[in-house]
Design brief:
N-terminal domain of TfIIb, 30% strand
Length: 56
């Protein structure tokens, strides 16, 4: 079971409130604003700032 497109539409970055997009390998959600990547574990997005990794 993958993440629902409806869920992806309403999710935002808790740090900067920008839109998030699914990473190409579907292992995380990347913020388009601050470039944090939030992990997706067992098809559940972990939207905690402490769990995110900032990528280039």
């Amino acid at each position: 079971m993958a993440l629902s497109p409806d869920l992806l539409e309403i999710l935002i970055c808790p740090a900067c409130k920008a839109k998030v997009e699914l990473t190409p390998d579907a292992s995380g959600l990347k913020c388009v604003g601050c470039r944090r990547v939030y992990p997706v574990r067992d098809d559940i997005p972990v939207m905690l700032i402490d769990e995110a990794v900032i990528v280039e």
